[in-house]
Each structure stands twice: as structure tokens, then as C-alpha cells.
Amino acid sequence: MQHNGPSMQIGIASLSWQHKTGDATLNSTMDSISKANFDGCELSQRFPQDPFLIKNSLKQSGVKISSAQFHSYFTDKNRFNDTINRFLDHMHFLNAIGAKRIVVFECANNTFQNSSQFMLEEQPEASPGQFKLLVEGLNKIGRLAHDAGMQVVYQPRIGTVIHSEKEVAKLMEKTDPETVFLSIDTGHFEVLGITPLSILKKYSSRVSYIYLKDVDKRVLTKVKKNRLSYPSAREAGLFTILGKGSLNFSRFLEELKAIQYRGWVIAYGSDSDNQEFSDSAKKTRKFMKVSLGI
After folding, report:
1. How many other CB atoms are there within 10 angstroms of residue 2's CB atom?
2. Which of the four pLDDT bands, split at 50, 70 and 90, describes residue 171?
3. Is residue 1 part of a domain?
4. Would residue 283 count as lying in a domain?
5. At CA 157, angle to CA 135 and CA 163, rounded to 5?
């Protein structure tokens, strides 16, 4: 295994909490994460972006930052160099606050921000030249991260150029296995028709970051019937708190344990759930322990 760290680490995506509560402070959010017995969380853009403030809050709470997502634009050749420069700034910032993984996904020509396009109608495609640029860019930033003691982790997503098992296989084949790793997002994979278990088995040495999201299949049916956009689908509650959706995680989690997975597992806090986030976090963590065994 090429994963860093002594054991599986359990975190929660704080972005949705902050989106719902609005006035939640950095310290109170980290305190809630700690009291819910999570190891850490993703860094929200709504938190202060001051390393000193973040490190102080982490020290007080004992919580870690798992990552903060980075939007790449490698397939747009006019933004290639700018993407490298922005990545360096992002990498140095995360390194300063102790995060060792950088979740990356390609945003050029994305459709997930389009509020008028049916999210499942047509996914963006990369031309051979654009795909070559993506591979070149990921290998470059992967090497930069590796040399800094960090990992680049690519996330296939709805509405981006890497949105099927075929593209995941191609990306894994062309990128450097020592410096470019893979994220599994159970929610996005379910909607796209990608099987998380098969990806995990095939690329176990490269899977380094997992988003454990549940999917409300009633909402998914509504999405298909009404041809909803991605923003509208999220607002309708397509992705939901663990245990409130329709996914069965048992075989996937059994495989995680079998391969002695050493990366992060990030639970998802639903954007459409109006519970106080601290209460929601405790319920989510309890479900993970009691029902999922992690």
C-alpha cells in the first residue's frame, strides 16, 4: 500500500454545515467536529484563510484538516500555467496547516455550475489534445506535491471531463502512479453509474481519499423526470446524510478494511438538512460507528 498514516481517518465535509448555519465560527465548528468524535474535516472556503488562525483552532480542538479542494483548468491551454501557479499557492497554504492531501478536479468546460442544463444529458468531453494537457498538468502538480511530502488526489465528478469508468481507467493509466492518486465519491459515482467497489479493487494502491455520500433515489428519480440541473439537484437533496439515502455501503467498507485502507473517509453533511450542524455531526458519526463499523 502507498497510503500514508497509521490508520483510516474519519472526517466530515464542513462546507455544507457552514452553508446552512451561516454564522458558525471556525472555533465552534472545529469544537463540534471534535465533540462528534471525527478526526478532522475538509477546509471550507467560508472559514478564515489565515494559517495562524486555523492552526490555533486545530490545536485547541485536536482536529485535523484533511484537504481543501483545488479547481484545475489544465484542458484550457490558456490557463495551464496559471493553474500551476495557483496550485503552488494552494499547496503551500495546505502544507502550512498540516493537510497532506490535495483533492483536485478539472473545471474547464464543466457543466455542474450550469443552472439551466440537465445534469445527466451530456457530460463534457476532452479532446485527445486536452486530455494530454490534463495528464501533463496532473503529473506536474503531483510531483510538486510529492516533493513537499503531500499527495494530489484526483476526483471524478458529475459535469467534468472525468465522469465514467472508462475515463478513470485512462487517467490512471496515463498519470504517474507514484504521484497522482484517486478519490472515490460514492454519491457522484452512483449517479454516474460508476461502481465504487470495482474502482477500489482495481486501484486500491492509488485510492487515497473517499467521500462517503448517500443518495436519495426518490430525488434522483425526480431529477431524471424533471431534467434538473446539478445545482437544482443538490438543492433538492440529491446527496443526503448517511443512512437517510438508498446506498448500501457494506461490501465497499468490507473491502476498505480488507486492503487496510490508510486514507481519509469524509462523511457528507446534507445541504438540504436544517438540523443544527453539531447535532447532525453526532448523528452521522454514530451511524458510521454503529451501522457501518468505522
Report:
1. 14
2. very high
3. no
4. yes
5. 70
- 162: domain CATH number? 3.20.20.150
Closest alpha carbon to 266 in 69, 95, 89? 69
| pTM of the predicted model as reported, rounded to 2 decimal places | 0.91
In a domain, 2, yes or no: no
Rounded Cα gap, residues 170 and 44, in angstroms? 31
Q: Is 3 a domain residue?
A: no
Cβ neighbors of 140 (< 8 A, separation 6 or more) are: 84
**116, 201, 192, 115: which is closest to 155 by C-alpha?**
192
136 burial class (0-12, 13-18, 19+ CB within 10 angstroms)? middle
Q: Give me the number of domains the chain comprises.
A: 1
Residues 219-242 have pLDDT tens digits of 999 999 999 999 999 889 898 888
Q: How far apart are CA 189 and CA 172, in angstroms?
A: 16
Cβ-Cβ contacts under 8 Å for 76 (sequence gap 6 or more): 108, 109
72-92 burial: b if 16+ Cβ within 10 Å, else e: bbbbbeebbeebeebbeebbe
* Contact (Cβ atoms closer than 8 angstroms) between residue 87 and residue 70: yes
Contact 192, 158 (CB under 8 A): yes
pLDDT digits (tens, 9 = 90+) for 72-126: 999 999 999 999 999 999 999 999 999 999 999 999 999 888 888 899 888 899 9
Three cell numbers, residue 257: 478494511
Domain membership of residue 270 as a residue range: 9-290
Quickly count: other Cβ atoms within 10 Å of residue 289's Cβ.
12
Top-ranked range on mean pLDDT: pick from 192-201, 241-250, 274-283: 192-201
